[in-house]
Amino acid sequence: MQKRTFLLATLAAAVGLSLQGTAQAASYPNRPIELVVPAVATGASDLSARVFAKYAEKRLGKPVVVVRINGAGGYNGSRTVREDKSNGYQVLYTHQGLIANYLTKVAPYSYDGFKVGPAVVEDATLGLYASGKSGIKSINDLLARARAEPGKLKAATEYGTLSHFMFLKLQKEQGVTFKLMDTGGDAARLAAMLGGTVDVMAKVYSGTQDYLTSGDFALLGEPADKRAPNAPQVPTYKEQGVDFTFPPYVWSLFFNQNTPQAIVDTWTEVAREVTSDPAYRKEIEALDMAWTYKSPEENAAAHAGMQQAFAELVGGTSAVAKQ
């Protein structure tokens, strides 16, 4: 009798939660939504999030406000959404940095600490840049210098991020060693390069054109199998005879685990509509980025594969010095 009573109570509770979630989704949204970006202003994450938010709020009927919460390689922002109790009124907008944070123990959770939503933007241009004063003009120049002077070339990165993992992968596969410098995010890496305190950095193409034109930086190529649609003039490393690739950034939506599935489904449909909108695509391309759409299922599978591949790099993690 007690067992039956317990089972009935458990079933009733589950039904109650399901009905509550359905009711919440039916009235969702009834107030502004925060799109949390764990990055600084004017970077690729912030700029693309603002474009996506503009088109999303047209479909949701309520403001979608971009809120930047920077620090700890993205962990501060992701933690805010992970601990959120608003049931869908805080949505995380980020990329596979969640995986890098987890594998380097910056964060105690990975992408699967959230409900994975759809992907809406991608960028395969996380290229290597050398200082214009270094005399390094190509990926082959960089590797030759690194082999001749092991551990002497200073590489700007941010511990526990994708740029960090790019250098780990490059070191492992090409048999070279850099002096990895934890300079911080995009803005800090740009400043370190311009100030001459580092020799090389990893960054997406967006926001670098002026430095390339002035000769402050030399772009050594892109790490994709084929030229990126948002930087078709930039050769890949493979075209230069170096077999080195790195996965593209993929910006996606992530939700607190307690978010009703119906609300995640609402955002999935919104994302599908937004990424099909020619005006949205045009604005994303104007940022020198690429639009995309991946369903939550496709997106979660891609993250799982990337995490498995990146886990093999962690054992060989090199020391990263503070600038």
TrEMBL record:
Q: What are the alphabetically sorted keywords of the record?
A: Receptor, Signal
Top-rank taxon, per record:
Bacteria
Lineage of this protein's species? Bacteria, Pseudomonadati, Pseudomonadota, Gammaproteobacteria, Pseudomonadales
The text of the family note is: Belongs to the UPF0065 (bug) family.
Leader sequence segment: 1-25
Protein name, per record: Tripartite-type tricarboxylate transporter, receptor component TctC
Q: Which Gene3D superfamilies has this protein been placed in?
A: Bordetella uptake gene, domain 1, Periplasmic binding protein-like II
**Which Pfam families does the record associate with it?**
TctC
